[in-house]
Structure formats: C-alpha cells, structure tokens
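Recall the central idea of this unit: under ordinary conditions, the amino acid sequence of a chain determines the structure it adopts. In this exercise we apply that idea directly, starting from the sequence alone.
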Amino acid sequence: MFMNAEMNVTYITLGGHVELNKYRYLYFMIMFTVYILIICSNATIICLIIIHKNLHEPMYIFIAALLLNSVLLSTVIYPKLLLDFLSEKQIVSYSACLFQVFLFYSLSGSEFLLLAAMAYDRYVSICKPLQYPTIMRKTTINIFLVLAWLLPASQCSVPVVRCGITELCDFTLKGIFCNNSVNHLQCVTSAAMQIYGLLILFNVAIFPALFILFTYTKILIIAYRSGEIRTKAVRTCLPHLLVLINYSCLMTYDMIIVRLQSDLSKTAYFVMTLQIISYNPLFNPIIYGLKMKEISKHLKRLFCQKSGKV
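Accordingly, the structure predicted from this sequence is:
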C-alpha cells in the first residue's frame, strides 16, 4: 500500500504485468497501435453515418452509438495502461480504480442494451413494416439511447460506492486494469452485494441477450415464410448477431478469468486480459464496415477517392 499523508489517499498496485522491465516498449508500441486503430476505424464509420443523410436511419444511429461506446470503453482502459507500460511503478489511487471499474462495467452493460435496441429496430422494421415510422420515431430513438447509457450506470454505481467504504486487506490487484478483481482486495465479501451483482448481470447482460435472441428468432421465422424479405433479414441481422456473440463470449471470458485468476499463471492472465480489451472494439467496425451494405458502399467510395487522389 502507498499512502499519501497529506491527502490520505490509498494506492493500489497493479500486479498483473509480465516482465515489464524487459518488454515495456514493445508492449507500449503494440497497444498504442491497437488503440489508434480502434479510434480511427470506429471514428471513420461514425463520421460516415453523420455525414451521409441516407444513413440517418435508426439502425445506423444505433450502430454509431455502439461504435462510440466502444471508443469510450477503450479510452477508459488504454491511456492508463499505456502510461503504466512506461512507468516505474504501476499504481493507481483506490478512488480512481473504482471509477475505472464503474465506467468499464457501465459501458459494458450499455453495449448489450444498444444491441437490444438494434434488435428491436430490426424486429419492427421486418415484422411490422407499416408501423415502423410510427414506432421508431426520433423520440423513441433518443429514449433508447439515454436508457442504454443511464440504466447500467445507475445500477453499477451502487456496488462501486459500497466498495469505496469497505475496508481493504490487500493492496495488490492481480490485473493490469481495475475490474471485478477489486472485490478480492476487501477484508470481508458481502453476500448481499454478490446477489446484487448477479441482478445487475441479469438486467444489463443476460436479459438483453435473451431479448435479442428472441427477436431474431421471430425475424427468422417470418423471413422463412416470406422469401421476399428473407435476404434483407439475413443481411441486416447477421452483423448484429456476430457482434452479440463476440461480445458475449468476451464478457464471459472476463468473468471466468476473474474467478479463476488464482488458478491461472500470470502470463496467461495477462494475455487473456489484453485479448478482452482488444478484440471487440476492433471487431465491431470491421463487421459493420464489411457486412452492412450502405456503410460498405460509402467506405469503398471514401477509399477509392483517396487512392484516386494519390
């Protein structure tokens, strides 16, 4: 533990780094490159959706919000991680650590709720096309966006505040950024907070995922009854399903390695954590850029214009 006498600030050591003295610059260059790719790839598609009026539809607005969420989630982790790679001591104040935990899990929950909003949009568009303009109005979209960010944040704030007033018996976090592992630092684990954590998991992850699977099942049933809209259904729903499967696997991965961190080698835990924070924000823009026809069309025009100028 590091303690600042004047400010009375508790510091946590991030003990999940592997051979940092030997590979710090290699780690920095790799993860800095990944972070730049995340920002550029996501920002490119977001800008295309903003600029082109034919992309000002609910589905593309939700895609832009999802990609923005990925950038925000990466920004919660990468700047501090890059700074730690170049620092002699990998420490963080406990309050800043809890704030990172709050942002990480609230934005992670927002990812599922945004995907659920997109699934509902596809359901109304394909299953109730005549009612689509009435249901998916601008007000409805704004409500979905606000709820997608507000609900997880409000629910995640309770356990984070509870952690802030709980006594610590350990001051070394077995990770490279702050996540649910902070619970292992506490002297006493609250059974009530564990139950509340499960409720949050169901509210912001499992229930939205089940809703998404239900809506896409309904869409596919209707699609097979009507060959006319079958191609449209598969083309618009497949990218969302791929993103959902990828993100669900990564979040399950995160929960498993947090639970099993004592059984994993330090190197394995380090590599797995880097995969969790890298795959999804790089995967999303690739999937939507390649699989969404209108976005792909604008991307081709953009790069063709640049190559033509060169």
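The chain is about 75% helix and 5% strand.
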